[in-house]
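Q: What structure does this chain adopt?
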Amino acid sequence: MDDTRARSEFLRIKDNLIERIATGPRDLFEIEDRLIRLTDHLEKFAFLKIYRLAEDGEMALNILAEKLIELDAENRRKLIRQTLDGMRLEQ
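A:
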């Protein structure tokens, strides 16, 4: 997924979620599902940005290390897995 597509999908889901919460019935399971999808898209978008900033794998790992400092443990593990998976696909 490219940056533009990931960002537009993220914004679409975010706007839809905000509208749903504001106007629709408050089905907590549906809201939770949409929040999970929104988070997934945001993580993909952030991962693409980190990876595209890198000129090579070593630089990608340096950028990743800086970003990991800002995240909690669960999100750190996710970002590490995504980066390693992305690097494997590039090879």
